[in-house]
Amino acid sequence: MNSEDIENFMMWKVVPCRDKREIWFTLESPPWGVASVFSVEDYRKFSLVVKNQDEVQKKIKEEFYSKATVSEIIGHAEGQEKLIGLLEDKPPPTDEDLNFEDDAPVIRIINTFIANALLKESSDIHFEPYEKDSIVRFRIDGVLQDVARPMRALYSALVSRIKIMAHLDIAERRLPQDGRMKIRLNDREVDIRVSTLPTGSGERVVMRLLDKRNLGMKLDDLGMSQEIKNKFVNCIDKPNGIILVTGPTGSGKTTTLYASLEKLNAQDRNIMTVEDPIEYDIKGISQTQVLPRIGLDFSNVLRAILRQDPDVIMIGEIRDTETARIAVQASLTGHLVLATLHTNDAASAVVRLRDMGIEPYLISSTLNAVLAQRLVRKLCKNGNSYKGRTGIYELLEINDTVRELIKKNTDNNVLRRKAITLGMKTLIDDGNRLVDLSITDEEEVARVTLLTEDEN
Can you tell me whether residue 399 is helix, strand or coil? Predict the structure, then answer.
């Protein structure tokens, strides 16, 4: 399939589905469009099938951005090392469409990697150097998968291209760097965060893909049980107090916070956030990104936000004692505060705040709820593999009984056991609910809850 084919397929909204011996087209596809792409011979071999526009566009991407395409381009580039030098003459893209017909193989490889990652709904792309070769891996549904092994000479050029795209210093290889880029693939707009790290074998790069199609997710879309969702909504509907969302990196905490803000977003509320970084822009909400290198950290931004007459404050992460104290103070003065914290379960958030130096009586007075969460892979229709992810949740509501235990500096395990007797469903309980519904399996629930189980 060449570039002219792709152009015609996109223009006329038609595509062959070879495994089913079908030609897919939409009701908007003109008859001459189908005829211009397919021959009489094709009509004899394939049957015509009407599909919606999204299905046709997805199939076109599958046909074009195949795994073989990456291998072919890499093989071509490795056979023509002198072309790698063309990289340096290319300006960085600024919110532009990915170009798959560029003269420089390196540029085509990077663009194809990004397109493949998006097609496979990956969250991250890893570029890892080793002594004799390198590995490129995609994180799909939370699990890393190898996709290519470029030779070292090509790897260095790939890293340089990524740094140019992210507006980083390509000459600086001794220090870590962070950057950002924005790309479009057809009608899909994606922000990409780039992080580089020097290693003994060269620079390691991770690209985090922030797909704007995920923006606007509502609480109904997160996979919460009706019981937990209703209780959580009651907690965030309160005019003041602190709501914590906890879990490891990549467990969907930010998505839950954004869905909560979407629920709270209204004309009569002033909602402000402090984040590092701002993952998605939300209309009607004032968002501030911290910039530690100029002294704009979480605590400084929070102090400024408190002078901006906010109703709701979202803190991307409570990382230190000062930020925790300002969050407590904000809730005591009539603000609703939503924040994330890195703990393994809901009850551990109380211990974490105590370890940060927050007095137990202040925690008991301000904390409304703690929502711990993980993401589990969903079983596909045949039940033999996974496709997509959904959340499992553990909600600790801070009622009068729990407040008294917190005030008395109760041990974490005692607090957790009491919460369970009061009706709290654990992460494992919620995971087993999904197992019973055949949404996931026991192995997947065990994989993401093992640490919580071991520590309690």
Answer: coil
Task: Work out the end-to-end distance of the chain between its first and last CA atoms, rounded to an integer number of angstroms.
Answer: 55
Q: Which of 98-112, 213-227, 288-302, 340-354 has the least mean pLDDT? A: 98-112
Residues 194-227: tens digit of each pLDDT: 999 999 999 999 999 987 766 668 999 999 999 9
User: What is the pairing mode between strands 177-185 and 188-199?
Assistant: antiparallel
Beta bridge partners of 174: none
Are 82 and 117 a contacting pair, CB within 8 Å?
no
How far is residue 256's CA from residue 238's CA, in Å, rounded to a whole number? 17
Backbone angles phi, psi at 88, to 5 degrees: -65, -20
130: buried, middle or exposed (CB in 10 Å: 19+, 13-18, 0-12)? Answer: middle
Which residue in 257, 73, 279, 289 sits closest to 190, CA to CA?
Answer: 279
| Greater pLDDT, 455 or 114 | 114
432: its two tokens? 């087993």
Question: Token pair for residue 287?
Answer: 């968002």
What are the φ/ψ torsions at residue 151 (nearest 5 degrees)?
-70, 160
Long-range contacts of 32-35 (CB under 8 A, 24+ apart): 33/8
**Count of CB atoms situated within 10 Å of the CB of 6:** 18
**What's the CATH architecture for 71-77+104-211?**
2-Layer Sandwich (3.30)
Residue 413 backbone dihedrals phi, psi, to 5 degrees: -65, -35
Q: From the centroid of its chain, how far is CA 10?
A: 28
pTM of the entire predicted model: 0.76
Burial of 329 per CB tally in 10 Å (0-12, 13-18, 19+): middle
- What is the residue-wise DSSP string for 180-220? EEEEEETTEEEEEEEEEEEETTEEEEEEEEEEGGGTT--GG
Model pLDDT for residues 239-273, shown as the tens digit of each residue: 999 999 999 988 999 999 999 999 999 999 999 99
Whole-number Å distance between alpha carbons of 389 and 448: 12
Assess contact for 180 and 165: CB atoms under 8 A: no
Cα angle 396, 398, 403 (rounded to 5 degrees) comes to 130
Query: Does the domain formed by 3-67 have CATH 3.30.300?
Result: yes
b/e for 332-343, b at 16 or more Cβ within 10 A? eeebbbbbbbbb
d(CA 49, CA 410): 65
CA distance 413 to 426: 13
User: 271-275 and 312-315: which strand pairing?
Assistant: parallel
What residues does each domain of the chain span? Answer: 3-67, 71-77+104-211, 219-452
CATH top-level class of 219-452: alpha beta
